[in-house]
Design brief:
Elements (H helix, E strand, L loop, with lengths): L1 E5 L2 E7 L4 E6 L11 H7 L9 E3 H6 L11 E3 L2 H19 L4 E2 L14 H11 L5 E3 L5 H10 L3 H6 L4 H7 L2 E5 L21 H8 L3 E5 L13 E3 L6 H14 L5 H7 E2 L1 H8 L10 H8 L3 H13 L2 E5 L10 H14 L8 E3 L12 E2 L16 E3 L3 H6 L4 E4 L2 E4 L5 E5 L3 H4 L3 H8 L4 E6 L4 H4 L3 E4 L8 E3 L6 E5 L12 H11 L3 H5 L4 H18 L7 H6 L3 E2 L2 E3 L6 H5 L13 E2 L3 H6 L27 E4 L15 H4 L8 E4 L1 H6 L7 E5 L4 E8 L7 E4 L7 E2 L2 E5 L24 E8 L19
Parallel strand pairs: 6-18, 7-15, 8-9, 8-12, 9-10, 11-25, 12-13, 18-19, 19-20, 26-30, 27-29, 29-32
Antiparallel strand pairs: 1-2, 2-3, 4-5, 4-20, 14-24, 16-17, 21-22, 22-23, 26-33, 27-30, 28-29, 28-33, 31-32
Helix pairs in contact: 3-19, 4-19, 5-14, 7-8, 9-12, 9-13, 9-14, 12-13
Protein name: Molybdopterin-dependent oxidoreductase
Cofactor: Mo-bis(molybdopterin guanine dinucleotide)
GO cellular component, one term: outer membrane-bounded periplasmic space
């Protein structure tokens, strides 16, 4: 028996050496996730990559732009594949330089600390001179850029959020814009030992806390909350928040003493609320036709928020849309107007329903990890702009006050992650992936990214290699000995990069003469010694490796966000330019962006139910995170497959919308707009707001060979828009799209993603 980590929880497993014979949740997890069932069933699935492969066209024609995604693959020995790849890396670095290599590798990859794919590939590329990197994330593109200007960096927001136990004891009203999704709150980078996403909400409710969820999905919050559902129009949250703020301002309910002492720019914002800028008072009557929420309900909610200890929390989903900076900024402004930032149970939250690591106790230190070295290339892109970069080398763009230029990428190296899950407008991304000379992918599975590569190297799953791990903010540090032998000829990334590094003359620099097991011991011993110097005792490596998970030291069991700032803003200023909360930002105003001005405003999205496009595409598609997998990981696993309908990802639709289209539960439907289309299996539910469809991301992209804009499997990114949130952050806008839905009456096309692609003779 062994214990192992996934991003969605810890499991115990029995193994016969080749496969897992039983998988169980960790005995100490009070709220285990059924996603664990995907691990064993996926390990030897036909979609596993069994040996190295090279795209036939790349072998025959050499490096260069190509229509990737439909070619055959030729099986190779490890020696031949590594020799080919080393030669191509040497050519690209010699002829075009490190600035021509994109080390993307965006994604959660695996849960181990040493075999973390991003760390491995970035360390390797840094040994060669560096690479063009990405910044920010698809989940938090707008937040990561905006929040440091107005409140704090995302590290502070997440790691020092008020602990959930404090909220459970002190909060009397939680107003959650975008819900408190139980599925999202059950995952965390690196793992979750003890899930508590439902427990703190249950305790808070027992202590008299009331929950209000503002979301197009009624069940986007645990049932334990017994929440009031305000089903506003998707994309209208900024208008609703402005109306709440207007009530607070007009009725004298704003905490002016707090605003004077802890914020800057309120009067500039208040002038906008009052209509001084454009002649429009942003009151509830103004907001009602925009949001679909009754004016009196908005007014009464604002009064209730001002009368009790209130937490204003904003889901990550809200900033994953066009002008996503605005509702996020307004969440901070509402919390500041209530004057409760820094108080137990009140203030502002960002991510309590988005990731398990938000609201945990603060650790003294993080566990050890592999150093990545120094990147010799300063150039980067916002991560959601990868297609723009590949399609438009040399083109200018704006980002966070900078005028930048897209680099000319000749080689893409991807290890860990699946951009054909995260990115928008997948047909456009497919075209973009055809532009570089060479695309290299390490992956355990024939994901869409692997199918669009030239050189494909099979990597191990975590259960097939030795590692150790701990989730972000989690208090447990787990040994993770391998549970089985690798599938086929799969190897870990460290071995692959070590072999490549030797061929390229940087073997000593990459490995430092250590095996993977020697690295595990070395990094652990260094980390243990550092803790010992601070007075914290941890077990030696042998005891840790053979024993139970180690408990990491904590600063304190409980924490209140921004309590020090509230107690003394001069001694504990924020990291903003003024040191205070910036309701109006001189810095952002100075950038001159009409899509993100100096204070939060209502900017009407291009695609929402109030736009002219809704006449042709009258359904607002919400592309949220899935329940049965993390992102697209292990989509071929048993638990994920159990919810498919005719093999397609399920889409939820309100009964009235289904009836208007003559649709019945279980039908296969076509979801489409001008960008593309996909198939999905229909679920009918009144937990979805009328006019809204909910199709989670995560189905492996399965394009029709004759029409790459058509995904046969149900990936909503076939129809989403590849456009930034604004010039400020250039974040992802994949959450919301306008579509139409119709019955699919043609014979169901076959799925190809559940097995390998076409394999040519070697």
């Amino acid at each position: 028996m062994g214990t192992h980590l996934t991003h969605w929880g810890v499991f115990e497993a029995d193994s016969d050496g080749d496969r897992l014979t039983e998988v169980r949740p960790w005995r100490e997890d009070p709220e285990p996730m059924p996603l664990i069932e995907n691990v064993a069933s996926a390990q030897h699935h036909p979609a596993r990559i069994d040996q190295p492969y090279v795209r036939k066209g790349w072998l025959e024609n050499g490096p260069g732009p190509a229509a990737r995604g439909a070619d055959e693959f030729v099986p190779m020995s490890w020696e031949t594949a590594l020799d080919l790849l080393a030669g191509e890396l040497a050519r690209v670095y010699r002829e075009f330089g490190a600035q021509s290599v994109y080390g993307g590798s965006y994604g959660w990859a695996s849960a181990g600390r040493f075999h973390h794919a991003q760390s491995q590939v970035h360390r390797f590329l840094n040994c060669l001179g560096g690479y063009v990197a990405h910044r920010n994330s698809y989940s938090l593109g707008a937040s990561t850029v905006l929040l440091p200007h107005i409140l704090a960096d995302m590290g502070t927001i997440m790691s020092r959020a008020t602990t959930k136990s404090v909220l459970a004891e002190h909060s009397k009203l939680v107003v959650s814009f975008g819900g408190l999704s139980p599925k999202n709150a059950a995952v965390s980078p690196g793992g979750v030992s003890r899930h508590n996403g439902r427990g703190w909400i249950r305790t808070a409710r027992e202590n008299g806390c009331r929950f209000v969820t503002v979301s197009p999905l009624r069940d986007d919050i645990p049932a334990e909350a017994q929440a009031e559902w305000i089903a506003s129009r998707p994309g209208s949250d900024a208008a609703l928040m402005l109306a709440l703020a207007q009530v607070l301002d007009a009725e004298g309910l704003a905490d002016n003493a707090f605003l004077d002492s802890y914020t800057v720019g309120y009067e500039r914002f208040a002038d906008y609320l009052r209509g001084g800028v454009d002649g429009i008072v942003k009151d509830p009557e103004w907001a009602e036709p925009i949001t679909g929420v009754a004016a009196e309900r908005i007014r009464s909610l604002a009064r209730e928020m001002a009368s009790t200890r209130t937490l204003v929390t904003v889901s990550w989903s809200l900033q994953r849309a066009r002008y996503g900076e605005q509702p996020l900024w307004l969440g901070v402004v509402l919390a500041a107007m209530l004057g409760q930032i820094g108080l137990p149970g009140g203030g502002f939250g960002h991510g309590y329903g988005s990731s398990a690591n938000v609201g945990l106790a603060v650790r003294v230190t993080s566990p050890p990890k592999l150093p990545q070295g120094r990147n010799g290339v300063e150039d980067f892109i916002p991560v959601a702009r990868i297609a723009d970069m590949l399609l438009n080398p040399g083109a200018p763009y704006e980002y966070n006050g900078e005028h930048r230029t897209y680099p000319n990428i000749r080689l893409v190296y991807w290890a860990g992650g699946n951009p054909f899950h995260h990115h928008q407008n997948l047909a456009r991304l497919r075209t973009a992936f055809g532009r570089p000379d060479t695309v290299v992918v390490h992956d355990p599975f024939w994901s869409a990214t692997a199918r669009h590569a030239d050189i494909v190297l099979p990597s191990t799953m975590t259960i097939e290699r030795d590692d150790y791990g701990s989730g972000e903010g989690d208090r447990f540090f787990f040994p993770m000995p391998a549970l089985t032998r690798p599938h086929g000829q799969a190897r870990d990334d460290y071995w692959m990069f070590g072999e490549l590094a030797e061929r390229l003359g940087v073997g000593k620099e990459f490995t430092e003469g250590r095996t993977a097991q020697e690295w595990l011991r070395h990094l652990y011993d260094e980390w243990r010694d550092r803790l010992g110097e601070r007075g914290y005792e941890m077990p030696d490596f042998e005891a840790f490796w053979a024993g139970e998970p180690a408990q990491l030291p904590l600063e304190a069991e409980e924490h209140v966000a921004f309590a020090d700032f509230r107690a003394d803003p001069s001694a504990h200023p924020l990291g903003t330019p003024s040191g205070r909360i910036e309701i109006f930002s001189e810095t952002i105003a100075g950038f001159g962006y009409d899509d993100c001005p100096g204070h939060p405003v209502w900017l009407e999205p291009d695609e929402w139910l109030g736009s002219p496009q809704a006449a042709r595409f009258p359904i607002q598609l919400v592309a949220n995170q899935p329940r049965t997998k993390l992102h697209s990981q292990l989509d071929i696993g048993a638990h994920s497959q159990s919810t498919k309908i005719s093999g397609r990802e399920p889409v939820r639709l309100h009964p009235d919308d289904a009836a208007a289209r003559g649709l019945a539960a279980g039908d296969v439907v076509r979801i489409f707009n001008d960008r593309g289309s996909c198939l999905a299996g229909l679920e009918i539910s009144d937990a979805v707001r009328p006019g809204v469809a909910q199709l989670s991301t995560g189905a492996w992209y399965d394009p029709d060979p004759a029409d790459p804009t058509f995904c046969r499997h149900g990936n909503p990114n076939a129809v989403t828009n590849d456009r930034g949130t604004s010039r400020l952050s250039q974040g992802c806008t994949g959450q919301l799209s306008l579509v139409e839905i119709e019955p699919y009456t043609a014979p169901l096309p076959p799925l190809t993603v559940t097995g390998p692609p076409a394999i040519a003779a070697s």
